[in-house]
Design goal:
The complex is a heterotrimer of chains A (383), B (338) and C (352). Chain B has 338 residues and is α/β, with parallel strands linked by helices. Chain B has a single domain, classed as P-loop containing nucleotide triphosphate hydrolases (Rossmann fold), CATH 3.40.50. Chain B is built from twelve helices and twelve strands. Chain C is of the alpha/beta class. Chain C starts with 9 loop residues before the first strand and ends in a 22-residue tail after the last strand. The chains are: A alpha+beta (383), B alpha/beta (338), C alpha/beta (352). Chains in contact: A-B, A-C, B-C.
Chain lengths: 383, 338, 352
């Protein structure tokens, strides 16, 4: 081989040629890239929009619910949903949607009330109407509703239940409990999981071994019986708020194991990555390595796993309440609402009592789509 | 020297012409193989050499019709296979999933991979994997097939083949696994063997064992080998003929002596100058090729090596250089020789 | 071997270094054995030179580097290091705090250009990290230093705010080199810095390392498995086998006059780009490297050595200088009597 004495100086100048023509000085960070990849996932974006919408409903449920969910309209027990109409019974078109009131007759054979539209009672739907009074988040009095009918009218979009309460408004109120229980539960399990998984992965040794066994033990117990046992142990005289937190804690008791596993395995695999070793070799402290190198490297995976575990929590609450051992009336949650639809006969004659299930499914599906999208977006080298 | 390169039709076992294999990803089209012509003479070892992303492995997978579709797609070209006493077959005209192709694959064409652990099935013993393959292609009962498997393991230099035949891949060392994989590949006495970086994952002393084993088996079975590698040392040791690839194209094709002693294409010369050679100490600097490999998503106008080439002219940057073949069978894709 | 205390040109002196990793078993984590990754290594490094460390996978060369960097706490032995201020410290005795002073003087370049850079940090943050964690300079001076380093490794200053995923393997390796240089180290451990790179890029990085050494006088310990690269870059070479150094010598002497049968076999196993040189079947090593958890008694190489005799199975040879000089050390009972084959000289004359 020819002994070549070309100084590397000249060679160096050529090295940059590859990306020289790009003019942007700042490039996209990991999070920006992740967001871009996420946006390419159509179902995930759709899911995200649905989820944001549902959480908005939950946060401002007093504003969005057209009726007071606790008021019993005793003359409209088990009433079917009202149709929103643009054309009246005489064929006249109206730009403003409206509903007809119900009138009921008693069927003398089945002793059931049969409802028919009462064409004499027409209620126009209005945006930002004044409805019955409420207290937003229990503090701020108000009466403005997103939409509704004028005073004295009634609007049962999804019908009423056996006490004559508006199912639609109850679903919206129920979303506050059902959706927040998933979120709070997930944050509790995230905190426990990060802490224990972190200790396990960083310290290793006997502590790790013990925690792993505990996790295996917890995961080997079937969820529902464990939850049932624990929630049966909640004192019956507890206030609804305490029961709510009790249930949340019960749900996160199993949820943390998943997060802990993710965190532990990430710590273990990242600890020997060369960039972490390089930081050690530079003299970085343990704290800096954990906060600057390790956590940012796996936090996206944790977010994915957390997103994917919210549906489990929501379903857990729904299942417990459905079985009558979770939240109890007068608290409104989707599970509590579905409990009332347990009776086959009821479902057969009053199918609208099942509408809360549609919301549960929609939420769970959307969260799963979002989780999938995040997971696909989280891999930094998938280009 | 030059007789390694096939000149007569009868000397050719397999001929790739105008092969284009593209990958349609969400970020754009990667033209992994972009018009490759390679001739594989009977009974010779053809080294296909190039850097990462040059398309050497995709060429190999295309010959086996093992490119995963989608995202991959063979867009154009012919791959003519000339069996000794049958009509020629265009491999690309066969449906990759149909019987004819499956028969060809395994019996006539075989492949060994870089990482034996991932290409051996971990849930079957090595013997089972040979037996299964042999029984698909030959009428043998299980006992005969097992005898045959032991014989094959013996041939690839696995000690105690009668016991090893019942071992699982994970019970073997890296070198032994690579031998086992060679045994499986050669079980049906294929005419054409593709070895894709067969020794890259191995240590240098084990690599030497495997290279010598491959040379011996090639002599014994008369198999033609396509040796895909990035290691110029492995090519220098093994190959009779060498094809140098860059950015999805063959840029030079010649027998090994000619290629290493009188390289023509500036890329080939650059590669040879940039490797450190033993016994040349005192050489203070290596002569690297300038710049870096182009982005695989870019579509390059003109010669794909022009940006890094010390001899580039205006023409190189605008017109794709033609494939120039001399009478002795060597070829080069460069305007310098036009 | 020259002692660091009496030889002012020696910067690092490793004495009988051992790194044994325990193998645990069962729920109670009983120790059932040890992987003797590094098992009694002696070596020294002179200021401004490159010491190549070569061996097959599992020979302990990477572990040796990580012990010197004190990313690992060695089981036994000494690592004596001469600091810029002339003080000699035994790194094995230092804790995290005590090491901090020396971390700036001993830096590292890793193999994998992808995992060695934190993909969440910009190029500037990555290169300035050693400065930042050691509280050197302020924000502005660190930025100036990063710009200077990017120049030095042949990258444009404009890349400072970019993220690693936008760079090719060779460019990333340059970023890794810039990070190592940021604190003006004395000694740089290069752990297979070019083995993940393409051939044409490999040469660029090797040249860069040589050039930096020439200009700044860095001392390198260059760990690699590729004998050609090692020969090209090293002034002296240590050959490792199963956790021990079997031969240590000037590069030319080692390749031209190997004294250990393992060195001979290793060099004979290199496939040559020069088609005139073919592998010599008679020199093939049989079998595989034994497990470092259970190394053979006596000379560790005797199970594969073609010259092994009875005494090789009984007693372990020590690394000693051979008769004709202080520069060539070998651990073989038969070193004096054997005549071994040098590495074949490869020749390709490729004109420009």
């Amino acid at each position: 081989m020819a002994l070549n004495d070309t100084s590397p100086e000249q060679q160096k100048l050529q090295v940059d040629a590859g990306i020289e023509n790009e003019t942007t000085e700042r490039s996209l960070s990991h999070w920006q890239l992740m967001w871009r990849r996420f946006l390419k996932h159509r179902l995930a974006v759709f899911g995200l929009i649905v989820i944001i919408g549902l959480y908005m409903l939950a946060i401002f449920c007093e504003f969005f619910a057209p009726m007071d969910p606790y008021v019993r309209y005793s003359q409209f027990v088990n009433a079917p949903p009202q149709r929103i109409r643009f054309v009246d019974h005489e064929g006249n078109f109206s730009i403003r949607p409206f509903v007809y009131g119900h009138k009921s007759t008693l069927d003398m054979q089945s002793f059931r009330r049969v409802y028919e539209p009462d064409y004499s009672k027409r209620y126009d739907l209005r945006l930002f109407t004044k409805g019955s009074k409420y207290k937003l988040w229990g503090f701020f009095p108000g009466s403005l509703r997103f939409f509704g009918v004028e005073e004295g009218g009634h609007l049962f979009l999804f019908g009423t239940d056996n006490l004559g309460r508006d199912v639609f408004s109850r679903i919206i109120y129920g979303s506050r409990i059902s959706l927040s229980i998933g979120l709070i539960g997930v944050f509790i399990s995230l905190a426990i999981g990060m802490l224990l998984g972190g200790i396990s992965g960083l310290r290793g040794g006997l502590i790790d071994e013990l925690l792993q066994r505990v996790i295996e033990l917890l995961r080997s117990v079937p969820d529902i019986p464990l939850w049932m046992g624990l929630s049966a142990a909640l004192p019956p005289h507890w206030s609804p708020i305490r029961v709510y937190f009790g249930i949340t804690v019960i749900l996160s008791l199993l949820g943390w194991t998943h997060v802990a596993r993710v965190v532990r395995s990430r710590f273990l695999s990242l600890r020997n990555e060369e960039f972490v070793l390089a930081a050690y070799a530079a003299g970085a402290s343990e704290w800096r390595i954990i906060t600057k190198h390790l956590i940012p490297s796996f936090i996206s995976y944790v977010i994915v796993s957390v997103t994917l575990s919210i549906p489990g929590m929501i379903l857990g609450e729904t299942a417990l309440s459905f079985l009558g051992i979770g939240l109890r009336p007068p608290v409104i949650s989707w599970g509590v609402l579905l409990e009332q639809a347990q009776n086959i006969a009821a479902v057969n004659t009053y199918p609208w009592l099942l509408t809360p299930a549609i919301f549960v499914i929609l939420t769970v599906l959307s969260l799963n789509f979002v989780g999938d999208g995040l997971r696909d977006a989280a891999d930094p080298y998938s280009k | 020297m030059v007789d390694s390169v096939a000149k007569n039709r009868e000397d050719i076992l397999l001929e790739v012409k105008g092969l284009k294999t593209y990958f349609h990803t969400e970020y754009g089209v990667v033209r992994a193989v972009n018009g490759v012509d390679i001739t594989f003479p009977r009974g010779k070892v053809v080294g296909v050499v190039g850097e990462s992303g040059c398309g050497k492995s995709v060429t190999a997978l295309s010959i086996m019709q093992l490119v995963s579709q989608p995202p991959g797609k063979i867009e154009a070209g012919t791959i003519m296979y000339y069996p000794e006493d049958e009509a020629p077959i265009d491999i690309l005209s066969l449906n990759p999933k149909e019987r004819k192709m499956r028969e060809l694959r395994g019996k006539e064409l075989a492949m060994i991979f870089q990482e034996p652990m991932t290409s051996l099935n971990p849930i079957y013993t090595v013997g089972d994997q040979i037996i299964e393959k042999v029984q698909v292609h030959f009428p043998m009962d299980r006992n005969e097939a097992k005898e045959y498997a032991i014989d094959m393991l013996n041939k690839v230099g696995i000690p105690d083949p009668a016991q090893r035949v019942d071992e699982y891949p994970h019970q073997m060392s890296g070198g032994m696994r690579q031998r086992a994989m060679i045994a499986i590949a050669l079980a049906c006495d294929p005419r054409f063997l593709i070895a894709d970086e067969p020794t890259t994952a191995l240590d240098v002393t084990v690599q030497a064992q495997i290279l010598i084993l491959m040379q011996d088996l090639q002599q014994e079975f008369g198999t033609s080998i396509m040796l895909v590698t990035h290691d110029l040392g492995v090519v220098g040791e093994m190959a009779d003929v060498v094809a140098v690839m860059y950015m999805g194209k063959v840029v030079e094709y010649a027998d090994v002596q000619t290629l290493f002693y009188e390289p023509r294409h500036p890329y080939t010369r650059g590669l040879l100058r940039s490797i450190p050679l033993i016994g040349q100490s005192g050489a203070r600097w290596l002569s690297p090729i300038e710049g870096m490999l182009p982005d695989p998503y870019d579509q390059i106008i003109g010669c794909s090596f022009a940006a890094r080439c010390p001899h580039r002219t205006e023409q190189c940057q605008h017109e794709t250089p033609p494939w120039l073949e001399s009478e002795d069978g060597r070829g080069v894709r460069c305007w310098l020789y036009a | 071997m020259p002692d660091i205390r009496t030889n002012p040109d020696v910067i690092l002196d490793v004495k009988d270094l051992k790194m044994h990793f325990p193998i645990y078993e069962g729920l109670l984590r009983k120790i059932k054995g040890h992987v003797r990754a590094v098992d009694g290594v002696d070596l020294f490094v002179r200021k401004g030179e490159t010491l190549g460390v070569v061996g097959e996978s599992g020979c302990g060369k990477t572990t040796l580097g990580r012990c010197i960097l004190r990313l690992l706490q060695p089981t036994a032995g000494q690592i004596l290091f001469r600091s810029v201020d002339g003080e000699i410290a035994n790194l094995t005795e230092l804790d995290h705090k005590g090491m901090k002073k020396y971390r700036q003087e001993i830096q590292v370049i890793f193999q994998d250009p992808f995992s060695s850079l934190n993909s969440r940090m910009t190029v500037e943050e990555i290169i300035a990290e050693p400065l930042f964690v050691n509280d050197i300079g302020n924000r502005q001076s660190r930025q100036d230093r990063v710009a200077e380093l990017l120049d030095a490794v042949g990258l444009s200053r404009r890349y400072m705010h970019r993220y690693p995923h936008e760079f090719s393997g060779g460019q990333r390796q340059r970023i890794g080199i810039a990070r190592a240089l940021s604190v003006h180290p004395e000694l740089i451990i290069c752990d297979e810095p070019v083995s993940a790179l393409d051939v044409s890029i490999q040469a660029q990085v090797i040249n860069l390392l040589s050039e930096l050494q020439q200009e700044e006088g860095y001392t390198y310990i260059f760990v690699a498995h590729d004998l050609s690269v090692i020969e090209h870059i090293s002034h002296r070479v240590a050959v490792m086998y199963l956790g021990q150094i079997v031969e240590l010598s000037e590069t030319d002497e080692l390749y031209g006059n190997p004294k250990h049968p393992y060195t001979e076999a290793l060099m004979a196993a290199i496939p040559s780009p020069d088609p005139a040189i073919k592998l010599d079947r008679s020199m093939l090593l049989s079998g595989n490297v034994p497990s470092p958890a259970n190394p053979p008694p006596g000379c560790r190489f005797h199970t594969r050595c073609r010259y092994a005799q009875e005494k090789c199975k009984q007693s372990e040879p020590r690394l000693v200088p051979i008769a004709d000089g202080e520069a060539h050390y070998v651990a073989c009972h038969r070193a004096e009597e054997l005549t071994l084959r040098p590495a074949p000289k490869q020749a390709l004359d490729v004109a420009q």
